[in-house]
Structure formats: C-alpha cells, structure tokens
From TrEMBL:
One of its GO terms (molecular function) is ATP binding. It catalyses: beta-D-fructose 6-phosphate + ATP = beta-D-fructose 1,6-bisphosphate + ADP + H(+). GO terms for cellular component: cytosol. It comes from Ceratopteris richardii (Triangle waterfern). Residues 373-397 are annotated as: Disordered. Catalyzes the phosphorylation of D-fructose 6-phosphate to fructose 1,6-bisphosphate by ATP, the first committing step of glycolysis. This is Phosphofructokinase domain-containing protein.
Amino acid sequence: MHLFSYWRAFVPQGGYRGFYSRNTVPLNLKVVNDIHKRGGTILGTSRGGHDTTKIVNSIEDRGINQVYIIGGDGTQKGAAAIFEEVKRRRLKVSVVGIPKTIDNDIAVIDRSFGFDTAVEEAQRAINAAHTEAESVHNGIGLVKLMGRYSGYIAMYATLASRDVDLCLIPEVPFHLEGEGGLYEFVDKRLRENGHMVIVVAEGAGQELMETSTQARDASGNQLLRDIGLWLSQKLKDHYSKTKNESLNLKYIDPTYMIRAIPSNASDNVYCTLLAQSGLHGAMAGYTGFTIGPVNGRHAFIPISRVTERPNRVNIADRMWARLLSSTNQPAFINADKINNKEPKEEKQVLVLNKLSDIFTNLDSNSSNGSLWSMDGAATDSTGKANVNTTKENESSQ
Ligand SMILES: Nc1ncnc2c1ncn2[C@@H]1O[C@H](COP(=O)(O)OP(=O)(O)O)[C@@H](O)[C@H]1O
Ligand SMILES: O=P(O)(O)OC[C@H]1O[C@](O)(COP(=O)(O)O)[C@@H](O)[C@@H]1O
C-alpha cells in the first residue's frame, strides 16, 4: 500500500502559516522520490505565524486526522499548543512532532535530525580555517557555527576535528582580558604554535557586545549580533595594541552553507526511522508525542516533555570536560558552581496519550504522558515506560 498517495501537505508559505494558506500539494511517491538528496525543504519554512485557533480550524475543516509537524524546539512548542487545542475540541486527530534542527536543542532525545550532517559539514570549514592559519605567521582561523542558545554543533565539530584550539559556546560566558581570559590564551597559543583555530557558536558572547540587542524575530528568538565579526575585530585591536607584529586572521562564516546541504547517510537512516516510528505511533492511536531516540532506543515522548526546557550543553558533564582536555582552553568559569545549579532529572513513569483515552477519560488523562519505546524493551507489561529521561547520552560514551 502506498500511503503517501493519499496524503497532502500544506504549502507554499511554509511553516505554521502553511496550515491556513489555501494551497496544498499531494505528497505521492513521485513527489518525495528524491527529496532526501536535496537540501532545504519542499514544504517551505517560516518564523512566527503560529495561530493555534486558525491552525486547528483548518485541520478540522479539512477533516485531517494525522498531523506531522517537523522542526526544532519552537516548532515542538507549537505542536504542543496544537495538540492541546485538538484535545480541548475532542477531535480525532493524532499530532506527532518530528525533531528536525541542526542545533540539537530539543530536550530528552539523543539528537535531532540534521545535527550529524551539520557537524560533518562544519569539518570542511574548520579544515579550511586550519589550512589558512598554519600557512602564515600569527595565523588565526576563526569559524562561526550555528547554535543560537545551544553550542552542540560547535562542541561536536571541535571534538571531531581536533584542529580546534578554542571553542566558544553560548552556555559558557567568556571574558577577554586578564588572567584566564581569551587574550591570554590566544597569545600563548600563537607564541607556542604560531597559529590557532577558534570555533565560535553564533549565540556565544552576546552579552559582551556593547551593541547587544533585545530585538526578536517573528518566532520570538533573540536577534543575534555577529560574534565572529566582533571577535575578529577585538583580536586584531588587541594584537596591534600589545604586539609589534601583525595578526593574520581569516574569518569564515559557513553557517547557511552548512544548513543548506543535503543530509548525510547517517541522518538519512535516522530520518527513515523517524518517519516509520511516527507513522506507527499515529496508526496505533497515540497522539501528542514527539518521536526520537532516547538512550539509543526509539521512543514516543509526550510533546510536553520535550518542550519543558531547551536542550543545552551541560558544561558540568563529561563531554564538555573532554572538549576542555582536548583543546586545553581556559574553562572560563567554575564548573562546580554550574554543577550545583543544574537540576538533576529523575526517572519518571508517566502515561502516554492515546486518542481513545482522550475520548473515554479526558479529565483523568495527564497531558504529561510517558516515553514509550518502539521496540518495547523499555516498557513494562502494562505498556508503561520506565525510561530515564535524563539526556545522558554522553555518559555512556
Ligand atoms: N511557545 C510557542 N507556542 C506556539 N508556537 C511557537 C512557540 N514557539 C515557537 N513557535 C512557532 O514555532 C515555529 C518555529 O519556531 P522557531 O523558533 O522559529 O524555530 P525552531 O522550530 O527551529 O526552534 C514558528 O512558527 C513559531 O512561531
Ligand atoms: O536566519 P534564520 O533563517 O532565522 O536562521 C538562523 C537560525 O537557524 C538556526 O540554525 C536554527 O535552524 P534550524 O532550527 O532550522 O535547524 C539557529 O541556530 C539560527 O540562529
């Protein structure tokens, strides 16, 4: 059976606006045949435009009974709002979140679709930065990578490359001057090696820029200043003030080039699993869940769980410690202090939402729900899951 031949997708304005635009396209096998080989999206995308009432009106008017919503942290929040409204109206509609963002900022799951590809593609920029930097005296290759609030791409690209001397992420505020500061470290590396590579996530150091802005995009995300340009200028100024030599700094911003490429093989396989699992969940009558791997097992996760908090690099965790020992960069802050601030997550047993439950017992059905493992290994005989929802993927590596 070719399920796709019955399906239509909302376009062309893209994103949530697409729900209440008039146009749709059929998603048959011919249309989707080679989309995994292309970057971008055939559905279109947009910031803002989430109007829960209009969206659910459209779902209701068109008689849609399964909704698959693809995107990052903000998109999952939008999906949660749609699910709540669908539930309030008692509609027989499954709402399924598909975690897609290169930033990897979706909580609970091991990684989001696109992240692996972004880390791999970032290697090309880092390699270029390294080649340029080591070819000249006092060479610095500075690479900016995406990551508005989460520094995962920068962290993993640094760990994968091993050519990076300094990695700056939004989760670690850094300082330029004085003992343990960035200037001191850069001076030392250039003195010792004659060149260095810096990777900076786009959300890092925003608080340092005098011109920092409170402006927001249509989705409510803070509009960021270009930390790469700012840091380039600061380093050049520092060098010209304190040394009698010139600094050869090459700034590379590959951010949109990275986001625009087709997904790699590993992400393609992941995508297949997301598609199959999401469909199985909806067909089994579950709703209000996001699909994704948790500690290596594909699970249905109540959307409300993945939207409770964003997934950010835990700098008290082993992975960041590994990065620090690999680059030998300054820690900038005392990890112990951060450690005490991080709330520890506990094992949870919750109940997953089923469409049938919503109709039979709406009031007693918690909207929190549970994780439900696709292979059943993490569930008990009652179908309830007992999965540690702490995102501890790092600790097992
Ligand atoms: N709290 C929220 N409630 C409803 N919709 C939201 C919420 N946060 C974001 N959205 C919507 O989700 C969509 C995507 O959010 P955005 O932050 O731009 O991207 P991402 O999904 O990659 O995080 C936008 O249309 C935005 O309006
Ligand atoms: O300029 P735009 O299109 O708003 O995109 C920039 C933002 O996209 C992000 O990469 C997130 O993109 P995705 O959620 O599509 O992966 C952020 O890191 C970045 O701030």
